[in-house]
TrEMBL record, chain A:
Source taxonomy: Bacteria, Pseudomonadati, Pseudomonadota, Alphaproteobacteria, Hyphomicrobiales
Listed name of the protein: ABC transporter permease
Family matches, as InterPro entries: ABC_transp_permease (IPR001851)
GO cellular component, as recorded: plasma membrane
PANTHER family assigned to the protein according to its UniProt record, in alphabetical order: ABC TRANSPORTER, PERMEASE PROTEIN, GUANOSINE ABC TRANSPORTER PERMEASE PROTEIN NUPP
Keyword line: Cell membrane, Membrane, Transmembrane, Transmembrane helix
Pfam families: BPD_transp_2
TrEMBL record, chain B:
Membrane association type: Multi-pass membrane protein
Highest taxon listed in the record's lineage: Bacteria
Keywords: Cell membrane, Membrane, Transmembrane, Transmembrane helix
Name of the protein in question: ABC transporter permease
InterPro entries: ABC_transp_permease (IPR001851)
A molecular-function term among this protein's GO annotations: transmembrane transporter activity
Bilayer-crossing regions: 6-27, 34-57, 63-84, 91-109, 145-162, 192-211, 217-236, 243-261, 267-286
Gene Ontology, cellular component aspect: plasma membrane
Pfam families (alphabetical): BPD_transp_2
Database matches in CDD domains: TM_PBP1_transp_TpRbsC_like
Predominant location: membrane
Amino acid sequence: MSDEVSTIVAPSAAGSGARRRFGQISIEVRRNASSGLRIAAVAIALLVGLGLSAVALVLAGVPADSLADEFIMATLFDPTNFKAVLFQASPLILVGLCAAMAFRVRFWNLGIEGQMIFGGIGATIVSLLKLGPDPARLYLMALAAMICGALWAFIPALLKLRLAVNEIISTLLLNYVAYYGLLHLLYGPWKDQDGFPHSPSFAPSELLPTLSSGMSVSLLIAVAAALLMAYVAGRSRAGIFMRFVSANPSVARALGVPVGGMVLSVVLASGALAALAGFTVVSGQEGRLTQSFFEGYGVSGVLIGFLARNNPIAAAIVAFLMSVLFVAGQNLQVFYSIPSSMVQLIQAVVVMCVAASDFLVVHRIHWIRGTP
Amino acid sequence: MSGFLVTWLANVPQLAVPYALAALGLIISERAGVLNLTAEGLMLVGALASVGTLLTFEVHPLVAMVVGMIAAGLVSLVFAFLVITLRVNQVIAGLVMVFFCQGLTSLLGNLCGWTSKAFTGLAPLPLGPLADLPVLGPILFRQDLVAYLVIPIFLGVAYMLSRSRFGLRLRAVGENPEAADAMGIPISATRFLAVAGGGLLVGLAGAYIAIASVKIWVDDMTAGRGWIAIALVIFARWNPWRALIGALLFGGIQAVIPKLAAAGIMLPQYLVMTTPYLVTLAVMIWGSVRHLHRPSDEPGALGQPYVREERR
């Protein structure tokens, strides 16, 4: 059962199938749940979660009859909002991939926000120093971002591998360190001439462009990353190693899998993905390094990775749905002055419902009349 | 120099109390085998509920803090239901609970208009002539009631965990649920009690920050202290007394920072604010190095759901 501790694997594999009776109810552990059942359980959980959220929204002052309008029509069928959904999806896909990859080697990377911050800082260093020729600037910014994010992720990875320091806590603590480091830069050496705590704006050649079709380049980056990760996890040798590590590190080690090196490289890649998300936000959305560009992505990434069961393609899809929720939330904020924390609450409630629905997938519950 | 020391040490208890209470609450839960990452969220619930009660009903601050405790205890039941009854992965459930509580408290604080409203809060106890003693007076006899209550709370919980019948059963559930189940100890009920009881203490820690220490509610005002408390539990190796010492250490470090600035030592403001987190990290590393090749004191079944149907 140690699978339960550090990977997000449904405990279906380990059942003996013995029966137990609580008076009238009997619970049985399923060995294998059908995928149809899984999908049905998730669908029901989503409906319950959205239903609860709808109640909360109505209580907070959104008219009940316009809820569906706001959520479905206004976000998916309005061209401006749909573009916003696609735009917003790219960092979410990247942070979702970041979490999903780390979870595949049993590393709880909760330091997504810190790695994003370092991604933003790396990109801004290149912009401020005007490194490289203009046409190459964006590539250099992305590269610098990924290096900085990977280096920031290197600290908890090394601490875990060498000293067995719990990565859940170390990554979370490092988020705060990164955040205050960012504030130090923005209130100090990198403060803009206008006196506000953000960096000077990036030059036009340092902004992620939008293609003529209206598609943003950040989305292309995110989708490419998702496909690459799907290949790595599903088809490559490294992916097979990752599956060994995830199933049982000590057996993997006995089989000759370089467990430490595997974990380290996946965590570095995970940090680089988070940093790439940071880069797409500062260069694609904000146009400069700001105080709060990373906010809300950390937990969202972890939740996306969890809901996607660590599958990169599923992570991209979940991230897209999460993005619908984000954009709908922004609209609610504008039109009904619903606080932004509502989106956070809805996300949490939906994830709780989906996590709870797993119980129905993994267990079979019978009602028994009378004594059996 | 002695003036500096006295004003510094006089501030330590107030900063150490939330760490001590939250870590103690987490220890109860984790000794029963439930890995509890909810502290940051439950502290916010305790803080908001107590501030809301104080602002709405103008009750005694202690009454408000009790309400905050109860609110956090109730919310921790949601977590208990998720991880004990439904066997949701405890890390994910803990994170979601924190996220949920952050959203909920920020939303309610906003909708009810409790945000950024200052109030008087909990005052220090008047201990008469004792408070005027040189040196010892400000440090030991000018604290508030809850700071003094921490000592009996720790004595009680430490006794409960190490000596009482219930504590023995609670630890058995955390070490080896299969054996405990065979002995007839109700696993789920014991874990529910441990999580809820721990939730009360974590809620009190949050209420203390809001009512006794900062005396205002703002979003996310716990600022990572819940995570520091979790690190403290690991550092203390699930032992209440070591957690208390750790809390005093962290409180001492946090208290010294503003005093340094007041003493005219110029430090970059935002970098200084990273010290509590860096110190926590350093303490964790130190603890890890010291115990690297020794058996861990971690409860045997920490983080694992108990599934009786799978008992072999």
